[in-house]
C-alpha cells in the first residue's frame, strides 16, 4: 500500500475545518476532512473537475448558508 501525499487547501484556515486532497497511484483522487480523517472519498479526475466547475459557478452556494 502506498502512502498518500495529502495536500491541504489554502482556503482551510482553522485546523478543525481543513479539506485535503491526494492523488493515488491508481489515478484516482482522494478527498478527506480533518474532522473525519478516516473517511475518504475516492473520485476520478473527471469527477473532480466537474465538481470544481460547479463550485466555481456557485451551484452549491445554497448548501453553505
Please explain how this structure is put together.
The structure is a single chain. By secondary structure, this protein is an alpha+beta fold. The protein has one domain. It is 18% helix and 25% strand. It contains 1 helix and 4 strands. It has one helix at residues 45-56; strands at residues 7-8, 19-23, 29-33, 40-43. It has a 4-stranded antiparallel sheet. The model has no long low-confidence stretch (mean pLDDT 91).
Radius of gyration: 13 Å
Based on the structure, what is the oligomeric state of the protein chains?
A: single chain
What amount of the residues lies in strands? 15-25%
Helix content: 10-25%
Give the strand order, joined by hyphens, for the main sheet: 1-2-3-4
Number of helical runs? 1
Total of domains: 1
Task: Assign the structural class, choosing from mainly alpha, mainly beta, alpha/beta, alpha+beta, or little secondary structure.
Answer: alpha+beta
**Number of distinct beta strands:** 4
H/E series: EEEEH
Instruction: Give the integer mean of the pLDDT values.
Output: 91
General shape: globular
Largest sheet: 4 strands, antiparallel
Amino acid at each position: 500500500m502506498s502512502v498518500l501525499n495529502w495536500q491541504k487547501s489554502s482556503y482551510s484556515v482553522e485546523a478543525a475545518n481543513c479539506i485535503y486532497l491526494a492523488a493515488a497511484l491508481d489515478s484516482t483522487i482522494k478527498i478527506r476532512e480533518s474532522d473525519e480523517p478516516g473517511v475518504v472519498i475516492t473520485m476520478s479526475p473527471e469527477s473532480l473537475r466537474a465538481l470544481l466547475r460547479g463550485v466555481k459557478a456557485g451551484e452549491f452556494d445554497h448548501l453553505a448558508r
